[in-house]
Structure formats: C-alpha cells, structure tokens
Design a protein that fits this description.
Its cofactor is pyridoxal 5'-phosphate. By secondary structure, this protein is of the alpha/beta class. It is built from 13 helices and 13 strands.
Amino acid sequence: MKLSHRITHLTPSGSDGWEVFYKARRMKAEGQPVTELTIGEHDIRTAAPILDAMHAAAKSGHTGYAMVPGTDALRDAVADRIAARTAVPTTRDNILITPGGQAALFAAHHAVLDQGDRALYIDPYYATYPGTIRGVGGDPVAVPARADTGFQPKAADIAANAEGAKSLLINTPNNPTGAVYARDTLDGIAQVCIDHDITLISDEVYDTQVWDGTHISPRALPGMADRTLVVGSMSKSHAMTGSRVGWVCGPAEAISHMINLATHTTYGVPGYIQDAALFALNQGPVLEDEVAAPFRRRRAVTEALLSGQNTVKASPTQGAMYAMLDIRSTGMTGNDFANALLDAHLIATMPGESFGQAGAGHVRVAMTIDDDSYATAMRTLIDFAAMQAT
C-alpha cells in the first residue's frame, strides 16, 4: 500500500518522544515494579457520581447519534463556564464539543491553516503539537522558551518568527514546564498576533490547576476575542481522561465551519458521555478543587525536597500536574538521565528532549502517584542525580 506523505511524516524524525514511557511499560509488563512518573493520568479515577450519571444517561437511551456540535445543554454549560471565568460574552454558538482536547487541537488548526502554511508553537511543547500541525498540512515552527526565564515565552522571539505565520499555539498552565503565563507575557503574545494577523490557539486544559499566579485566557485580552480559539477539556479538570470530551471556543463563524469538519470526521461525542460531562460541570468548583488537590500537595512536596540540595533544580512549578527538573549539573542529557534512572531504580520519567530542544537537560515528572510513593521516588531521583554529579 502506498501511504500518504502526510501520515508517514507526522513524526519525521521517527520518534514520537515516548520511548522511555514505552520501555517502562514493557518492563512493568514483565513484572518489574516500575514507578511511573511519566504520563499525565490522575491516580484517582473519575468520580463515582459522574459515572453514575453516565450510566443513567446510557440506560435512559442516550446512546444513539448525538448532535454533532454537542448537546445544547452541554454547549450552554461550557459557554457559561467560560463567560464566568473570562467576562467575555459566550454562547453555545461559540462552542464545539469534541472527542477530547486533542481533537479540538486538530479542528482548530484545520480551521486556520492551508497546505504549507507556517504555524508557530512554543518549545517545550506537549508531544503531539508538531504532529497535529503536520496532520493538517501545516509547517510547524518551534519558538523556544528558555529555562532561565521560567519558560515564559518572549514576544520578541515570537515576532522574529512571525513573518508569514498563520497561527500560534500556546499552552498555559503549561505541560511540560508547569509555567503559568504572566499577564505581561500574554500581552506581548497578543500584540504579536495583532501586528502580524495571526490566529492564537490557546490550549487551556489545565486551567483548574494553578498553584501560583492567575490563569488568564488570552481570549479576554483587548482585540483577541475574534482571533483566538480556546481548547478545553474535561480530562484534567474532572479526571475524565478516558471519556474523551473537550471543546473549542471561538468566533461563531469559525465554530460553524468546525462543526462541518466534525460532521466529516468524528461525527460528534456520545450523548451519554456528554450528559456525564454536563453533570460534572454542574458540580462547580468544589469537584474541580478536589481533583486538583493531590497535585497541589505534591507540588509542595517537590519544592520541600528540592530546597535541601543544589544538584536538581526546578523551574517554577506554577500550575499543571508536572515538575520540570533541571539535571544539567549531572552532565547528562535528559534522555540519558531518564534511561539510567529507570535502569538503576525502576523510576520512569520523561526526558525533557521529548518535549523539544528547549527542554534538553531536563526531565519531566508527573505528580500522579500517591503522596508517599511520590516523595520516595523524588528522594531517589535527587540522590541518583547527586551521585552522577560527583
């Protein structure tokens, strides 16, 4: 079979960045007691009342084709949530419900990119970003954010790459770095988008996990509501990763065309899952805070353990469920360190290089195991790094 260039070049280097994760899973399948600090998967499961709502919706018959844009009730609830958080008027016409945040990213880039269009994204980045851009025919261009600035992207760096660009993808709170973009950072990004007529695609799936600072949606900044597409999801905020329900929020005209795209691709999200998502959103901030609480605790554990040594340094972990650890004092790459730690101590982390060259010399840990096990694993990682640095 002759395959398309587009599908065979989603990851042209041949690596999708997940080699250490796959290695750890193979070792675990062989019976080795691997501690996984790799994937952003909650150690708690979806709350039982949400599953009860999903079951009740399925049993009541909401198992046929659902409305492709999403049910009116869920679109209204998402719109109300966004309006309340941003003070930007938002209605169901601004919302498309998607099968998770990844489908929302794909739809958003499809909406604004033609074949060969230049599409910017910030490095370090979530591993699927460049492949998503290639998947819609765009030309992905990384703009580095540097560790010495807390991985806050600089407007000047974006502007230097903006000529001819059609889109810019950002993520705050950020995976993998934990950075929450400051107001001046976002003001600079917004100005570049306005000056160069760039559509901003803002991945905000971690908006309920903010430990320091304030999450600001760039859609709320002056002049940005009509040039911003916001990606959201129930995965991280409500521990509904496997349910695959997310959304795009944007101008009504763009959303109408993305609804047409959904008709020709996903054909919507199962109705009983949408009903469960609606139930979850209606629980309000109490449930969101409950889901976020373990990561807030483990972030404090991380800071306490790192404060007593100088070998491993952390970027400011302001949000999300990860810590980006600087291990350059060991003289090792992130890839080498992650593999050596896994081999020596059966602790799996993600190399910083999995998320781009700006993450080189780092490893990302996911704070996604119970508190005591997490603290033990972090102590071992720190001790291992100290041994490598001597």
